[in-house]
Amino acid sequence: MKLTDSMVNNIFVHSMDVELNVTLLTLGGFAELHKYRYLYFVVTFTLYILILCFNSTIVCLIWTHTNLHEPMYIFIAALLINSVLYSMTIYPKLLSDVLSEKQIISYPLCLFQGFLYYTSAGSEFLLLAAMAYDRYVSICKPLQYAVIMNRITIYVSLVLAWIIPAFEIAVSVVLYSNVKLCSFTLTGIFCNNSGYKLQCVSSVAISIYGVVMLINIALLPMLFILFTYIRIVRISYQSCREVRKKAVKTCLPHLLVLINFSCFIVFDVVIVRLESDLSKTLRLILTFQSILFHPLLNPIIYGLKMNEIFKSLKILFCHVTVAGNI
């Protein structure tokens, strides 16, 4: 009897499982990897470097320019640092898998990757909520802005934005660590919600907790963001032209980032969790879009739409150009 590639792969994984006494999972989301292995690697590596450079450049600008040491820009820097952490969770393992003959990962390491991945995703929503509140106070309560958005408020917001998702995701990881697996092939290229389908019997506790967690770190922050921007629009409409102009300039980038990230969450929850009937190639394309557009578009949006950051970028590029011509 002729063995197929999937049969050989399963035999390999289970033999490794016995030898190492760990549960190994196969990452089955790659399409035509043997044909386009080096193209995958070059494209992925290039995108990873661009993401690191774009985000790090703006973070360094905010760090080194004292005129950018304001709550709004501090939150932007935190958001871009979160994008870097998000990318570092996915891309190094992805690059390694592209060059490997077998795309496998141990179950504990998979849980850890999922923990980092969803912690950074949850932190994104909470950081966007903090930024929305900052804009609300700035535009709707300008005289109280310095009192409300003080250093303590900023630091507490940043700490909570990372601690709350980390705690809630950690509970989910503990629940997943105790389930029995009957399938050992993930439909994705990294560890995400597709691990839900590996269980022998769907856990009611995990399903309920997943919904509660989604409400806490995604839905509630999104509703808060929408509420604050509705308030900003109402007050701006009743105010002078300068207030409306300020609202558009500072709020539009945040709304673009929110829309971009919300689309990513919809893909992760709907497409991955519900196992929509998509071809492997289409699923791979959609996955690459979700892990590319979000961390790469954030610095581009803030770099082009925020005047102070854009001015600092122009000065930096002018200095680099002059230095290059010397």
TrEMBL record:
User: What does the record give under GO molecular function?
Assistant: G protein-coupled receptor activity; odorant binding; olfactory receptor activity
Q: Where is the G-protein coupled receptors family 1 profile domain?
A: 54-302
Q: Which organism is it from?
A: Oreochromis aureus (Israeli tilapia)
Give UniProt keywords alphabetically.
Answer: Cell membrane, Disulfide bond, G-protein coupled receptor, Glycoprotein, Membrane, Olfaction, Receptor, Sensory transduction, Transducer, Transmembrane, Transmembrane helix
Entry-linked SUPFAM superfamilies: Family A G protein-coupled receptor-like
Give the main location: membrane
Q: Which family does it belong to?
A: Belongs to the G-protein coupled receptor 1 family.
Q: How far does the signal peptide extend, from start to end residue? A: none
What cellular-component terms does GO give this entry? Answer: plasma membrane
Q: Carries keyword Transport?
A: no
Query: What name has this protein been given in UniProt?
Result: Olfactory receptor
InterPro entries named among the record's database cross-references: GPCR1_Superfamily_Member (IPR052921), GPCR_Rhodpsn (IPR000276), GPCR_Rhodpsn_7TM (IPR017452), Olfact_rcpt (IPR000725)
The membrane topology term of the UniProt record is: Multi-pass membrane protein
- Transmembrane segment boundaries: 38-63, 72-91, 111-133, 154-176, 206-230, 251-272, 284-304
